[in-house]
């Protein structure tokens, strides 16, 4: 009989398989896609931000609501362990801004290949094109319980899985099916269904690390424009709920990019809770109420300069451009694509010579550059989120082993659990840590049973 069946060959599932097999268990890893690690191939813009080069406490701090639960798994398999694992598999790593860790090659495929090679080398059987349609826990001839795992094709196949070759038996099962983000990679919520069947509470899944939609008509005009070294703040009811420095991207529906994704976590949670000045209201109502009920984004285009220094720079730039029209005197300050928008928002005629611009008009421009306001009307669907918030409730999982407190022999790992953190390698670290803990925990369970 198989010791452990792992459902889902993503980051958590493959690491769980490796840890379990290294611990002496006979492991079968089921993946509904033809290739493992499809979602990992997309992370970090195809570069795969494998972890963050901080200590376990730094990882825990990146999960404000659930970090305490992760303390055990992250201490057991820390960022240093993750980096050592990949380097031992022949993947050189590098550390970039924000202590983000990437493969030196900038190819996420190298990370997926390393994981696949590692599990094969320790004897894991990888079954691709195998979607699990049902998990049953049954009596084992009076000597405890075993699991029967019913397999269809990659698209569901034989839903009844009545034939014996579509049913596998095992002592323990690890559910590592992911959340609901990027469903094309296989994250379609199957794990929630398996867990709910055995009484587990599923915290309402919603998108985390997701692009934001905005109301202003000028935003789509900047579609495709990427800005670096800018600061963005998110405010709800006049209170700052988040601030990030780095890179952002304008889209046809609003804003995206690293700092927006980081801020979105607080924005979505605030909208979910209805924690704004006007009090609680349903999300759909908030998204349709416009400016009064929405969260505000303030974009600082020149965070290195305060108002006085930025004003002095504008004066200095315009000294040699005194006869130029306003719309032609902003090249040193702004990307070309942004100039028409800023001109329109400033209220200064574009054909006005800069030597005729009043101090009041100039200060209005300076304030605009320091506080370009956008109104959040919503966020993109969960299918477009990098990470799913919500999932199997952590109060029902043993944090040391990842075993269910409700069902002996059932373990969970990765995004299927209700843990989600900031962007920057933290979520993949959580996947590796919980996967490793689940693999070792399931192997120990099998040894005892």
Would you kindly provide a written description of the structure presented here, covering whatever features stand out?
The chain is α+β, with helices and mostly antiparallel strands. It is built from 13 helices and 18 strands. Strands 1, 2, 6, 7, 8, 9 and 18 form a 7-stranded mixed sheet that branches. Strands 11-14-13-12-15-16 form a 6-stranded antiparallel β-barrel. The protein has a 3-stranded antiparallel sheet with strand order 3-5-4. It is elongated, with a radius of gyration of 25 Å. Mean pLDDT is 89; it is low at 154-164 and 275-293.
Name the features.
seven-stranded mixed beta sheet; 24% strand; elongated; 449 residues; alpha+beta; 33% helix; six-stranded antiparallel beta barrel
Task: Give the topology.
Elements: E1 2-7, H1 11-22, E2 27-30, H2 38-46, E3 51-52, H3 56-61, H4 67-76, H5 79-88, E4 93-96, E5 100-103, H6 108-121, E6 125-127, E7 131-139, E8 145-152, E9 167-175, H7 190-197, E10 202-208, E11 212-214, E12 226-236, E13 239-250, E14 254-256, H8 258-273, H9 283-288, E15 296-300, H10 307-319, H11 339-346, H12 359-370, E16 372-379, E17 387-392, E18 410-412, H13 426-448
Parallel strand pairs: 1-2, 1-9, 2-6, 9-18
Antiparallel strand pairs: 3-5, 4-5, 7-8, 8-9, 10-17, 11-14, 11-16, 12-13, 12-15, 13-14, 15-16
Helix pairs in contact: 1-6, 1-13, 2-6, 4-13, 10-12
């Amino acid at each position: 009989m198989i010791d452990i069946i792992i459902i889902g060959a993503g980051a958590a599932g493959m690491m769980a398989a490796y840890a379990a097999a290294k611990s002496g268990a006979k492991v079968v890893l089921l993946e509904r896609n033809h290739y493992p690690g499809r979602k990992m191939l997309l992370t970090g813009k195809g570069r795969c931000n494998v972890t963050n080069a901080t200590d376990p406490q730094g990882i825990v701090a990146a999960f404000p609501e659930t970090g305490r639960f992760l303390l055990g798994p992250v201490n057991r398999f820390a960022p240093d362990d993750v980096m050592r694992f990949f380097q031992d598999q022949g993947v050189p790593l590098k550390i970039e801004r924000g202590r983000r860790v990437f493969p030196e090659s900038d190819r996420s495929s190298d990370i997926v290949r390393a994981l696949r090679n590692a599990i094969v080398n320790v004897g894991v059987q990888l079954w691709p094109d195998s979607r699990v349609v049902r998990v049953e826990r049954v009596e084992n001839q009076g000597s405890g319980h075993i699991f029967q795992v019913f397999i269809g094709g990659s698209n569901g196949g034989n839903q009844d899985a009545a034939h014996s070759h579509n049913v596998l038996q095992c002592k323990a099962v690890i559910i590592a099916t992911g959340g609901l983000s990027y469903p094309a990679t296989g994250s379609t919520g199957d794990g929630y269904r398996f867990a709910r069947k055995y009484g587990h509470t599923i915290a309402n899944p919603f998108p985390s690390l997701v692009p934001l939609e905005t109301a202003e008509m000028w935003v789509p005009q900047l579609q495709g424009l990427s800005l670096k070294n800018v600061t963005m703040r998110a405010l709800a009811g006049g209170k700052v709920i988040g601030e990030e420095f780095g890179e952002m991207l304008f889209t046809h529906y609003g804003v995206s990019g690293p700092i927006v994704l980081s801020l979105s976590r607080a924005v979505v949670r605030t909208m979910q809770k209805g924690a704004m000045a006007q009090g609680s209201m349903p999300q759909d109502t908030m998204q349709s109420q416009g400016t009064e009920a929405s969260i505000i984004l303030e974009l600082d285009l020149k965070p290195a300069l305060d108002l006085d220094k930025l004003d002095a720079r504008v004066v200095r730039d315009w000294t040699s451009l005194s006869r130029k029209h306003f719309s032609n005197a902003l090249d040193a300050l702004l990307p070309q694509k942004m100039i028409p928008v800023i001109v329109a928002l400033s209220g200064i005629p574009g054909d006005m010579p800069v030597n005729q611009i009043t101090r009041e008009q100039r200060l209005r421009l300076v304030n605009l550059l320091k506080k370009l306001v956008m109104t959040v009307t919503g966020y993109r669907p969960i299918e477009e989120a990098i990470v799913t918030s919500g999932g199997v409730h952590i109060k029902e999982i043993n944090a040391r082993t990842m075993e269910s407190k409700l069902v002996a022999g059932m373990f969970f790992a990765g995004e299927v659990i209700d843990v989600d953190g900031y962007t920057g390698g933290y979520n993949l670290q959580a996947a590796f840590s919980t996967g490793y803990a689940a693999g070792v925990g399931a192997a120990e369970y099998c040894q005892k049973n």
